[in-house]
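Lab channel / #folding
Pinned by the channel admin:
"Please post every new chain as: sequence first, then the structure tokens as a reply. Keep commentary short and put observations after the output so the thread stays searchable."

First post following the new format, from NK:
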Amino acid sequence: MRRFLLAAVLLLTVPQAFAGGPSLLFDPMTEEVIAQDRAGEPWYPASLTKLMTAYVVFHKIRAGQLKLDQKIAVSALANSQPPSKIGVPVGQKLRVDFALQALLVYSANDMAYVLAEAASGSVAAFAAEMNAEARKLGMTGSHFVNPNGLFDPRNISTARDIALLAAAILRDYPEHNHYFSQQSLRVGKRRLANRNSLLRQMPEADGMKTGFVCSSGFNLVATATRDGRRLGAVIFGANNGKQRADLAEMLLVDGFSRPRTVGIKLDTIPNVKTGAIVPADMTKEVCKSKPVMVARAKDLAGWGISFGNYETAATADMALRGRMLSKSGITLPGTAGIIRLPENRGFAAAVWNLDKATSEEACARYHGEKAPCTLLPPEVLAGLAAIAAVAKETAPAADDPEGDEVETQRKIKPRKVQKN
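Reply from TO:
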């Protein structure tokens, strides 16, 4: 029986058997906290990032800069995003409304890029707007580098911040609430179920968004309404989709059982200072067959910087995560990742796709922080790429946000998308 209560304390501590990460139960209308556990701890939001993407797009729609029936084109960059995706071919146009449905119902990574480029001209410009809106909302523990939440060590948030964002969406843009409760997305003759299984599991559930990459585990923002009262729950780091839905339901049911009282506000929960700790990595718990992803040879280009060489990819990955969350790394452009060194010499934690000036300035800042940093000129990266290519290096598959939930990703035929 689902209807069971937790210990009746003001700030609930979630049983560790259920949650690997932080959690939060709150009232989105008053922004009062009902229960929380480590809500200010940094975490990888994964596809919960798409809530901020939606928030920025909703603002553009209200300002008249985008229209729901406006046709927007799919770029090569958008089309190249890994699953979950709709798979619309390059150059095809679709409506903003359809892109939002695909973004929020099916968690389509390609549609996040389509919307970002239509809204701001480029992904980089859109990410800057995402961070500007986060600052306005008081999301002091968040930083976004892309609109879909694919893993990047700089793409972080906290349960507190995600709750503030969810509350802002419900408060500021109630006309768009239907996207979060929509049961399915129709694409031609196919019907793609909402990734949020709580909508089918809990009668009172009415939103909001799921998230998953290997590093984050299974995340969920869930809302439900009973007797006119709406509550929200944030779950980070569950071991699977069923567990996160069960935990969210448990928190929401318990919240509805409590008398209404005046509690602390979301913005009074302190966020851990960015860079003070590295977010937990859930890969071993939720993606046991996926090792740390090593950069593909063909991706290495431009100038770069290295934070040192390490015996294992896992050690290099941990070093990289810490360096990228430092004051010098959080706004650093380029691509961060792990490079396999030739002749079994280990792995380098590095950033590439930079220009010379940016690389030199970055290393100067890191040296000022007493951190190791070595310049990687283009010829060095080209050499590493050539050696790897000769060795026929292959990389593990990219993190597949939402890919093992609901159904396996399949591309949608272009002609069927046009019918929506």
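NK: The chain has 14 helices and 13 strands.
TO: also worth noting, The longest strand covers residues 217-226.
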